[in-house]
Amino acid sequence: MRIRTMMIALAFTSAATAGRAFAQGADGKAVYDENCKKCHGVIGNPPKTMKEKYSKIATFDAKFIEQRTDDSVKKILNKGKGEDMKSFKGKLTDDEIEAVSKYVHELAAKHKP
Ligand code: HEC
Fold first, then answer.
1. pLDDT number for residue 22
2. Which residues form the pocket of ligand 1, taking CB atoms under 6 Å from any ligand atom?
3. 21 is a domain residue
4. Which alpha helices (H) appear in the chain, and where do they start and end?
5. Which atom of ligand 1 is nearest to the CA of 97?
6. pTM for this one?
7. What is the pLDDT of residues 93-112, one digit of tens each?
């Protein structure tokens, strides 16, 4: 009887979590494709035209991301960096910033320098 109650409680909790994830569920890839891809490239490799335009543009690869925490990416998105990497505060929600910084990490970790 106890176990059953626990199972039900568990089922409830995971359904609630899943529901929440879905409701807030910013899709990191979608946010990236819409807001970052044109400068940073599909897999984090900026296209040649962008490299020519922005000499300091970051390539997201395993080496780059090793030196960054999720928080550091979020900070950049909130504050911006330099003239060309604009702040996304106000343009993206906190959830979207969270999701896209996670996506940048995943992308970069798979991307060998
Ligand atoms: C208009 C082009 C452009 C767009 C759009 C853009 N970036 Fe950037 N990004 C840059 C440039 C240029 C830099 C290099 C800035 C510097 O180092 O001065 C940069 C740097 C960065 C860095 C590295 C900062 C560091 O730690 O050195 C991160 C992370 C980053 N961008 C993430 C993103 C994400 C995520 C998005 C989409 C939400 C995005 N950028 C959209 C141009 C862009």
1. 47
2. 35-36, 38-40, 54, 56-58, 68, 72-73, 76-77, 81-82, 84-85, 88, 100, 104
3. no
4. 2-24, 28-35, 37-40, 48-53, 62-66, 70-79, 94-110
5. 38
6. 0.83
7. 999 999 999 999 999 999 88
Q: How far is the CA of 19 from the centre of ligand 1 (A)?
A: 32
Neighbours of 77 (CB within 10 A): 26
What residues in the chain have per-residue pLDDT under 50?
A: 15-23
CATH number of the domain residue 83 falls in: 1.10.760.10
Q: What's the domain range around 57?
A: 26-110
Q: Which of 40, 86, 100, 111 to mutate to test the pocket of ligand 1 (most atoms within 8 A of CB)?
A: 40
Structure confidence at residue 94 (pLDDT): 95
Closest CA to 77 of 67, 69, 68, 89: 89
pLDDT at 21: 46
